[in-house]
Amino acid sequence: MDLFRGLLLVVIGIGAGFVQRVSGFGLGIFAMMFLPHFMPSHTDAATISTLFSCITSTYNSVRYRRNVEFKTAFPMICAALISIPVAVYFSAAVSGEIFKILLGAVLIVLSIYFMFFNKHIKINPTCFNGILAGTLGGTLNGLFSTGGPPVVLYLSNAMTDNITYFATIQFYFCFTNLYATAMRALNGIINIEILIYAAIGVVGCMIGDFIGKSVFEKLNSNKLKYIIYIGMIISGIVMFF
Description:
241 residues, 10 helices, 0% strand
């Protein structure tokens, strides 16, 4: 690996870790804006992004374990564990460009709707809603390593405070990303080169996580939701174009 690529991985990791710590999601979306441009394949880029998220989400879910809403998290996790292996299998064989364009458009519309009608929206943390969010999130995780948006829309409106939201979504990401990594390993996608790339980038992720912590602690729940919606609009635009 050349020095420039190593430094680039650290910089991408810092940005991804910061975005994840401030909004609770977006690490994969941020990383996938850049990684595919200098990784051997889209699949390699998605695998490295998932490894980034594995480390940071595991760290944060352990750190905030007392704030996790386990009853809300488990239906999402169970649903995602079913949909992830199916999506991972197809990710290596099916082009997802048209699907990504449609997903981008849906994210933009949903985010704008939630942004302006947020006060009139109440999503209850029911088992059915959790299963639906987890299924969609697991599918997007396996296909593009960007499984956050459906789960974020669900939890940001179902949770009552910032810390509970952050802890619960990190717990979800911890399980689903570890599982997605295992599925990629079983499909022969992970190799030594990818592990080296990921290890270098994770250093940046932890730096970004540390910087973002002070920003997150100053946010009230309404500001956090607006940051989330703006982040999803940007994500949708990136996917669409």
